[in-house]
Design goal:
413 residues; alpha+beta; four-stranded mixed β-sheet; four-stranded antiparallel β-sheet
Length: 413
């Protein structure tokens, strides 16, 4: 395995580190002040105005759409080369990813459109997303079924002449509440009698279509994530869209979801490690600056242990994520499936440990809004569920290990 990053990736890492220091971190307080002002004005799901300035600067510096490996539309970086850039952006998760047009769920939706969209879909939807002229959401999870088993998804996508009719209810459609959100990629049952992994399709549904109702936003431990469009609950009541809005082949929903989730999980995992790195820095600074029981916190054995264990957790998780990225680049998403499942557990687990220890070091301040730790922790806790709960990924890893053991027994027989 070779985790060496290209010269271009190394240069972009340096440029991004400078952008974080010069623009993003200084803008963090203003972003949250504008977010609160929008909330007081009754517009909680409005993007803070400073984001447009940050996006303009990111474009000027060449830090735009870095996540897309397809050089027709994005930077053309390998997954391995993008990984450290995702980690850097995770240090300021509220600002940096969106400032570079590299934030979920738009990244995954743009990847889907780039890989499976028609030329018309590229013109109508992909290009405006690449330009950040619109935003999008991904409507998969449903409130009435156990969505951890995605074959339970029950929304209907029914062919009717030159149209499809979409009927169902979704929630956790991140980004759906803000005005810029123009498109939902909806997953539902199109072929109910097909094999369980060939029953579902994805379809493009404009949110201004008759029959679409965005009811509310759910919250994450009390955070509404308003600046990023919240997490919408949406009903689709006999929503009719042109047949040309079908994304990819009918019945291909699961195959497309897997193609989307592989690189996307690298992005999530590396951003989580970026959060962990910042949390560790804050923990060390706090431990050095505060005194209790006759000396600095940094002199307490338990704190010193937390610092060391945090560094070990980050380094181990990063190596596993880089291995998964390298496998995606060299062997493909399918061949990297076990590693992708493993990092989806290991990276949030490592980052959650570091955040928890940092919060403990800060004491009451750690659970307040005076540091970024509490909101980071809330976001990381959701990663143990988002894109499938930990238990589903562990189940996948276990299945592979058992299969290997059985194959070894059969070869000895």
């Amino acid at each position: 395995m070779d985790f060496q990053h290209s010269a271009r990736s190394v240069a972009l890492q340096a440029e991004l580190a400078t952008f974080l220091a010069e623009m993003i971190l200084p803008a963090e307080a203003e972003f949250h002040q504008q977010e609160q002002a929008n909330r007081r004005a009754g517009r909680p799901f409005t993007t803070p105005a400073i984001m447009a300035d940050l996006q303009a600067e990111a474009r000027r510096r060449g830090l735009w759409n870095l996540f897309l490996p397809d050089d027709r539309f994005g930077a053309g970086l390998s997954v391995l080369d993008y990984a450290p850039l995702a980690e850097l952006s995770g240090r300021v998760p509220d600002l940096a990813p969106e400032a570079m047009n590299c934030s979920a769920p738009d990244t995954g939706n743009m990847e889907l459109l780039a890989m499976f969209g028609t030329d018309d879909q590229h013109r109508q939807w992909l290009q405006p997303l690449l330009n950040a002229e619109i935003r999008s959401c991904f409507s998969m999870t449903e409130p009435e079924v156990a969505s951890s088993d995605a074959t339970n998804i029950d929304t209907r996508i029914v062919a009717d002449g030159d149209s499809y009719v979409v009927t169902g209810r979704k929630w956790w459609s991140t980004g759906a509440m803000r005005d810029e959100c123009a498109l939902a990629i909806v997953m539902g049952v199109s072929d109910p009698d097909a094999d369980r992994h060939a029953r579902h399709s994805m379809i493009l549904v404009p949110l201004d279509s008759p029959g679409v109702t965005v009811h509310r936003s759910t919250t994450v431990f009390g955070y509404d994530d308003g600046a990023h469009g919240g997490h919408g609950e949406i009903s689709f009541d006999d929503v009719r869209v042109p047949a040309g809005n079908l994304l990819g082949p009918q019945g291909g929903g699961f195959a497309m979801a897997q193609a989307r989730l592989g690189p996307g999980r690298i992005h999530h995992c590396m951003r989580s490690l970026g959060m962990a790195e910042r949390a560790l820095e804050l923990m060390v600074a706090r431990a050095l600056s505060r005194e209790a029981f006759g000396g600095p916190l940094a002199g307490q054995g338990v704190i010193r242990n937390w610092i060391a264990e945090s560094r070990l957790a980050i380094e181990q998780a990063r190596l596993l994520v880089l291995k998964a990225a390298w496998l995606i680049d060299t062997a493909g998403v399918r061949q990297a499936a076990t590693e992708i499942a493993a990092i989806k557990v290991a990276a949030p687990r490592a980052a959650s440990y570091v955040l928890d220890r940092a919060i403990q070091t800060f004491g009451a301040a750690g659970v307040s809004g005076d540091t970024p730790l509490a909101q980071m922790w809330a976001g990381l806790r959701t990663l143990h569920l988002a894109d499938g709960p930990d238990e589903v990924h562990l189940r996948s890893v276990t299945r592979v290990e058992i299969a290997k053991s059985r194959a070894a027994e059969a070869s000895r027989a």
